[in-house]
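User:
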Amino acid sequence: MTGLKSNKVGDLYKWFKGQIKYPYVQREKNALADEIFFRFFKLRPDQRILESERRLPESDIVSLKRALNRLNKGEPLQYITGLADFLGHTIQVGPGVLIPRQETGELVLWVSEGIREYITESNPTLSILDFGTGSGCIAIALSAAFPGAEVRACDYCGEILKMAKHSALISGRDVEFFICNAFEGENNSILSSSVDFLVSNPPYVTESEKDMMQRNVVGFEPHKALFVSDADPLLFYRNIALKAMRWLKPGGWVYFEINEIMGRQCSDLLASQGYCRIMVKTDINGKERFIRAQRPELRKFSQEKS
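Assistant: Predicted structure:
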């Protein structure tokens, strides 16, 4: 292979990093090479230096070449390694599953704040539902943060849930997974009025925004998990919120990640469905990225209806 001096770790690392193409800048090339060598060979940067004279077999060189080809085609690193980091947890990902984002981590931290306030005010037992779980990152992180809670997670596809289940297993988290579709009728009556917190990161990027997104996202990540029609951008929120109103306990909360330009529309939607104490929250970049709302408690709800 062009430019490769030997099969020693040090030479392979320099070759691999040097073959990563534009648009990556040097800092990104270093990070990509570090991650590949750690995920493929369990070599952290300090270990890689200490073992720079170690020779790798031909099969490892072939794996590096394949990874390099995929990187240079724009495929996300997480799909190449099959793993993503999320709030300190290792999450399995692959084509068909959205790669966890920083914003979703912020959502989980906000939900966690709400849960801590909720527990001190009410029954210490807790039921959490992650609707449209995808990789399972939200459910796994919340299960770790609240080990005594009953955590459930659902998605429309059994193949997606297999990956999420594996991530929960390797993280040692007890999460119950089941199939559920936002557009079908009630299919899990056991949830009726039993959930304290429902969390969801549904598709919210409109088709018209597709051209503004990075090539590696549009080209490789699942469109079903990302995009929604411009004609009905709140489609998922409307259907999930309707289910949440049936599934939440009186006084329970629903949390969503949202499109930054649709905070007002999401707020109006939740208000029209009978939710109260609605709040839109900005992310670390000052964008309106999250919303929460409460199912009214029975006494208050009956007074509003009378």
